[in-house]
Structure prediction request, 72 residues.
Amino acid sequence: MTLSAQLQAALESRVVIEQAKGIIAARGGVSMDAAFARLRAHARRHGIRLTTLAHGVIDGSAPSALTGAPPP
Prediction:
């Protein structure tokens, strides 16, 4: 992978994580820092890559307890 491709992938990953933080913060009524802490802790606890979990938050497949959304 070229340096340019690595940088692009890192940027895209960061954007996804920021979107997920925003969703968690809005739904859970918490700060962006607290939202990131929730995201990171859940990923570590369950052995999931942070970006994979962030995609789950965005597409609605992440656990509602993480996002602060009411259960279906």
